[in-house]
Automatic annotation (TrEMBL):
<feature type="domain" description="Cytochrome b561 bacterial/Ni-hydrogenase">
    <location>
        <begin position="14"/>
        <end position="189"/>
    </location>
</feature>
<feature type="transmembrane region" description="Helical">
    <location>
        <begin position="49"/>
        <end position="67"/>
    </location>
</feature>
<dbReference type="GO" id="GO:0022904">
    <property type="term" value="P:respiratory electron transport chain"/>
</dbReference>
<feature type="transmembrane region" description="Helical">
    <location>
        <begin position="202"/>
        <end position="223"/>
    </location>
</feature>
<dbReference type="GO" id="GO:0005886">
    <property type="term" value="C:plasma membrane"/>
</dbReference>
<dbReference type="Pfam" id="PF01292">
    <property type="entry name" value="Ni_hydr_CYTB"/>
</dbReference>
<keyword id="KW-1003">Cell membrane</keyword>
<dbReference type="GO" id="GO:0020037">
    <property type="term" value="F:heme binding"/>
</dbReference>
<keyword id="KW-1133">Transmembrane helix</keyword>
<dbReference type="InterPro" id="IPR016174">
    <property type="entry name" value="Di-haem_cyt_TM"/>
</dbReference>
<dbReference type="InterPro" id="IPR051542">
    <property type="entry name" value="Hydrogenase_cytochrome"/>
</dbReference>
<keyword id="KW-0812">Transmembrane</keyword>
<feature type="transmembrane region" description="Helical">
    <location>
        <begin position="21"/>
        <end position="37"/>
    </location>
</feature>
<dbReference type="GO" id="GO:0009055">
    <property type="term" value="F:electron transfer activity"/>
</dbReference>
<keyword id="KW-0472">Membrane</keyword>
<protein>
    <submittedName>
        <fullName>Cytochrome B561</fullName>
    </submittedName>
</protein>
<dbReference type="InterPro" id="IPR011577">
    <property type="entry name" value="Cyt_b561_bac/Ni-Hgenase"/>
</dbReference>
Length: 224
């Protein structure tokens, strides 16, 4: 421990390994989907593979947000208006809420919802150029409906780019203005937090493997 503004600074494990792997996996898959989607043509095959993998991870994250470690649970970081106001007034310490801050929690929720819309619309989207790489469920809807969903698919990606840009901007502001590195804790799992932090609950790794396997099974069954 080292002295901090509230007496001590603790090095606290905040993010578990499953959440960190999800975060970086999602970031990599998002980049892969952007690149392959822009290339078009036969690259759309890899676009679909990246989308299927991302869909599995998203389903895992929804499960982990209910049954996983404390800092991963939606009920712990999706805050109400009063908590958001407390945070904006500087009345909510990081020791009280060591995971996502209230605004960060809402950003996570917005990203997950928009990513889910992106993935779901991709399942029904049509390859309007060659129709070789339609979404796996595109044949279950009328052609004009599939083309309309394709437009939503592209629009939701534009929305994702805006949200990702805001997310990166927030990380930069924290680094430059507040002198806090938000990237390193998502790599190591540990945060340096001023004040006394209560013991956090972490779900076992076996539960994460079960949730991931179940998510992959559900998605496979949906497509076959």
């Amino acid at each position: 421990m080292a002295p901090g503004c509230n007496g001590v600074t603790q090095r606290v494990l905040v993010w578990d390994l499953p959440l960190r792997l999800f975060h970086w996996g999602m970031a990599g898959l998002f980049g892969a989907m952007w690149f392959t989607g822009k290339q078009g043509g036969d690259w759309l095959h890899y676009h679909q593979l990246a989308g299927f993998t991302l869909a599995t991870l998203l389903l895992f994250r929804l499960v982990w947000g209910v049954f996983g470690s404390e800092t991963a649970r939606f009920g712990r970081f999706v805050a109400g208006p009063r908590t958001v106001v407390r945070y904006l007034r500087g009345e909510l310490s990081e020791a009280e809420q060591p995971g996502h801050n209230p605004l960060g929690g809402w950003m996570v929720l917005a990203l997950l919802c928009t990513l889910s819309l992106q993935v779901l619309s991709g399942l029904f989207a049509a390859d309007v150029d060659s129709y070789l790489y339609d979404g796996p469920l595109a044949a279950r809807v009328a052609g004009e409906v599939a083309e309309r969903i394709t437009a939503w698919h592209k629009a939701s990606f534009d929305a994702l780019l805006v949200l990702v840009s805001l997310h990166l901007l927030a990380i930069l502001v924290y680094r430059v203005v507040k002198r806090k590195n938000l990237v390193l804790p998502m790599i190591t799992g540990y945060k340096a937090i001023d004040g006394q932090v209560r013991s956090l609950h972490f779900a076992p790794a076996g539960l994460a493997l079960l949730a991931l396997g179940g998510s992959a099974g559900v998605f496979y069954a949906l497509l076959h």
